[in-house]
Design a protein that fits this description.
- This protein is about 40% helix and about 15% strand.
- The longest helix has 19 residues.
- The termini are far apart.
- The C terminus is likely disordered.
């Protein structure tokens, strides 16, 4: 009996308290670490990218792996790598939450391009604006009072 499954997710994880600590020189190494977790869990990474305070992953998940399990493994392994390599000295951890939205096969290339151009995108759009747009496009609403997830530098007194 054949089983056909296409489970593609757009996952967004942020640094704890939305701190801008993921400096560009070491980000590619962080992405390779995260990619290793996806491969280990029998997933497929289509694209990874981000900026100083969050990372986007577009990936397919093996049917035997829960999305929560994949995200947890990525965050734990990446945090361990960051600490062992002292890659981002001011990194204190990942935000407790995450966003995971399914996407259609037709949306894949558009999302790959959007993730590829995160740095340019965030010169014009704040993380909060981007996050709210992603939720709306997925038919989701931000939980009442959930300001920690989308805290911008200007909101936490740094801007």
């Amino acid at each position: 009996m054949a089983i056909y499954v296409q489970l593609t997710y757009h996952i967004v994880i942020a640094t704890q308290q939305h701190e801008a600590v993921l400096a560009k020189p070491k980000r590619e190494e962080l992405y390779r670490c995260m990619w290793g977790v996806v491969k280990e869990k029998k997933g497929h990474l289509f694209r990874i990218g981000g900026v100083e305070n969050h990372v986007h992953l577009l990936l397919s998940v093996h049917p035997a792996v829960a999305v929560a399990e994949m995200v947890k493994a990525i965050k734990l392994t990446a945090a361990e790598w960051i600490r062992s390599q002292a890659a981002f000295p001011k990194f204190t951890g990942w935000h407790e939450g995450y966003a995971a939205m399914t996407c259609s096969w037709e949306e894949k290339e558009m999302l790959v391009e959007a993730i590829k151009h995160q740095e340019e995108h965030h010169t014009e759009v704040s993380f909060r604006e981007e996050f709210e747009e992603l939720l709306e496009a997925a038919g989701l609403k931000m939980a009442e009072g959930d300001t920690v997830w989308v805290m911008d530098a200007e909101e936490d007194g740094e801007g």
